[in-house]
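User: Please predict the structure of the protein below. I'd like the answer in structure-token form so I can feed it into my own downstream comparison script.

Assistant: Understood. Taking the following sequence of 127 residues as input:
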Amino acid sequence: MQKNVKLLIGGIVGVVVAFSAISSVAIADTSSTSSTSATAPTAPTKNKYGGHVTAVDTTALTITVENKKTGPMTFTVTSSTKIKVNKVTATLADIKVGQVARIVSDDGKAANEIIVRDKSPKPAIQY
């Protein structure tokens, strides 16, 4: 009985020693990879804003969208802004007040992309 207890304790000690050696190697490996990932460049954050179009100014090149959460937000449209209305490439002049738009912006001021879906009700089917 005592011999079995000694073997059991010896086995447990061996497992603990082996596990601690393995985990110290794993910790050393993760510390070396975390230092390389810290220097890797990160992509800019793209923020998405959505709501109903409340204003379009083709002279000032701005679009204003409003929703209940953020209120009105105005974005500048640049020559690199991608605009699509109903999945078709469009211009700022093609966007109408009342349409639903999603704006993608890096800084919350200039629009990188404007996606408009005309949410007009579909005409009733006539039989």
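That's the full token string. Residues 75 and 126 are 41 Å apart (CA to CA).
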